[in-house]
Amino acid sequence: MPFYVPRNGSIALSEDHMKVLLKRYDKDGDGRLSKKELQAAFRNSGLHFSGFRARRALHHADSNHDGFIGNDEMKELVIYAARWGFTVK
């Protein structure tokens, strides 16, 4: 199920739904999201400047500075991404 930036007729996602959708982009199955995986998630959501947004999301949510968003950091990523108003149709 793709997710989108708000448009007419869209429904706001809960934090739990956003976590599930973002975790789908963990292509290597290591339980973490890399910058490349975040960029794909943002690009597929229809956001412009997906590379920039992925860097900013990592900067904001990567508390241990390992270059990945792990399960323990996912809540901060979701809070940060929610500012952009992710929605699903």
TrEMBL record:
One of its GO terms (molecular function) is calcium ion binding. Keywords: Calcium. SUPFAM superfamilies: EF-hand. It holds the Pfam family EF-hand_5. The keyword Transcription regulation does not apply. Residues 13-48, 49-84 form the EF-hand domain. This is EF-hand domain-containing protein. It comes from Citrus sinensis.
